[in-house]
Specification:
- It is built from 20 helices and three strands.
- The protein is elongated, with a radius of gyration of 27 Å.
- By secondary structure, the protein is mainly α.
- A hairpin with a 2-residue loop joins strand 2 and strand 3.
- The chain is about 60% helix and about 5% strand.
- Bound molecules: iron/sulfur cluster.
């Protein structure tokens, strides 16, 4: 741990901080199981932050969100373990997210946001100690200098709604090191130097944090490609490679309690509660009486998670396919795949319905109907499909805006909210979660209208 901070939790002026700067990897032994579990917990925090940012949350909402996510996911029974978990999980995710430019960019942005809000809630003493650990060459402005610029400083502070006290501490730094403060006209600048109040120091520290982490990610990537990937090909590499696309939500292979569906209701339920990806597959199956393998898997496993029993599933697929290929060919060529999904053939594994992440990253070819419409449809087709779902013109533009920025799950969340007239704070992460949440809302609407 020593390399990360000058001591595990006490800085050179004796101030205790729980916020590491992650300067270099800790010489800690980690059980393989913790290696993965810690990383998954941190990933939940970073994904929650990413969601909050893409939803356009304001700084004070983000501050609350970040601290709540941290508290929920990074707690540990033993307080000494909290710091270890923090450091280990950060370094594991560095390995996971160093591997492509896009992954590095995402990780850098989420870790910087996390650090920013954690730094802001530290005491002034801890913040000063952390600045010292960064070896920032800045000294607090002397009394004499403060007196000479006091009026100007007060003017700026008043303009941004802050007051200064006689014992306020200011730092003098080259203005290009605090671009966000300069852009927001939140500092007094004189002869190329910006005068930073203690509560603005976060900006200075963030610039340092981001630049250290950005360089470290490039170096980690070099080590990964030249050495680690080969050395760890049977042990860590498969875990690392799976982590960046891992689905972190619940398992939907079993339906909700008492949530079986019967064939006679399926069309109605598809219309009211299926997400767009499944509505599209369902509709294509009804129209063409056929779906290719990718579509059969995506829809078939979803229907299993929704509560369609194996016998009903066989009857449902047989009724459609036999119109196209005949009942005999269905029984010979396709029934096996359906029983297989329910764990009744082959290795007898009970297969899990696909998550959004898996569906979004699939690559449907010509004639395929699987995939995520927000990612794989043309703009024109998507607009038409959303209009058919009953999304009004204002929310439709919001959805399209998220699609343009490649926030497909968020686009689906906004669709859910527009169609159900109810918010979905957790966001859509899984088609079966969409379905379950939809059913819950519809059931509660039904029971409140029939008390
Ligand atoms: Fe389906 Fe998920 Fe895409 Fe929504 S975001 S359409 S649930 S894959």
């Amino acid at each position: 741990m020593e390399a990360v901070r000058k001591s595990s939790s006490v800085s050179n002026n004796g101030v205790v901080s729980k916020l590491p700067l992650y300067r270099s990897a800790p010489p800690l032994e980690v059980r393989l199981e913790d290696f993965e579990l810690y990383a998954i917990d941190r990933l939940r925090v970073l994904k929650g932050i990413s969601d909050g940012l893409s939803r356009g949350k304001k700084p004070d909402e983000m501050a609350k969100l970040v601290l709540d996510l941290w508290k929920t996911n990074m707690k540990n029974q033993h307080s000494s373990e909290v710091v270890n978990k923090d450091i280990i999980s950060h370094f594991v995710l560095r390995l996971v997210y160093c591997r492509t430019e896009e992954l590095r960019k995402w990780f850098l942005s989420m870790e910087t946001t996390l650090f920013r809000y954690r730094f802001r809630v530290e005491t002034t003493e801890v913040q000063r100690a952390l600045m010292a650990e960064f070896d920032l060459p800045y000294k607090a402005v002397s009394n004499a200098e403060y007196e000479s610029v006091k009026d100007k400083l007060n003017q700026v502070m008043r303009a941004i709604g802050q007051s200064t006290t006689t014992d306020a501490i200011f730092y003098k730094v080259p203005f290009e090191e605090v671009p966000e403060l300069v852009a927001g006209r939140k500092v007094f600048i004189q002869k190329g130097n910006a005068y930073i109040a203690m509560n603005q120091v976060v900006s200075l520290v963030i610039t340092q944090f981001r630049s250290h982490l950005s360089k470290a990610l490039v170096l980690t990537n070099r080590k990964w490609t030249s050495m680690i990937r080969e050395q760890e090909k049977d042990r860590l590499a498969p875990i690392i490679e799976a982590l960046s696309t891992s689905y972190l939500g619940p398992d939907y292979s079993q339906p909700r309690e008492h949530a079986e569906i019967s064939l006679k209701d399926i069309d109605q339920i598809a219309k009211s509660s299926f997400p767009l990806c499944m509505r599209h597959l369902f509709q294509k199956l009804r129209e063409d009486h056929h779906l290719k393998h990718g579509g059969r898997m995506q829809l078939g496993l979803f229907l299993k998670g929704v509560g369609l029993k194996l016998d009903d599933a066989l009857a449902f697929w047989r009724a459609e396919f036999s119109r196209k290929v005949g009942a005999e060919r269905f029984d010979k060529e396709y029934a096996y795949g359906i029983r297989h999904n329910y764990g009744k053939e082959g290795k007898r594994t009970d297969y899990t319905p696909y998550s959004c992440q898996k569906i979004i990253s699939s690559a449907p070819g010509v004639g395929d109907h699987h995939g995520c419409p927000y990612r794989h449809f043309s703009e024109e087709n998507l607009r038409a499909a959303l209009t058919r779902m009953g999304v009004g013109s204002r929310p439709l533009e919001d959805v399209m805006d998220k699609v343009r920025n490649r926030h497909y799950q968020l686009a689906c969340t906004l669709t859910f909210e527009a169609v159900h007239g109810s918010s979905c704070d957790a966001g859509v992460n899984h088609p079966n979660q969409y379905y379950n949440d939809s059913q819950r809302i519809l059931e509660s609407k039904k029971s409140s209208s029939n008390p």
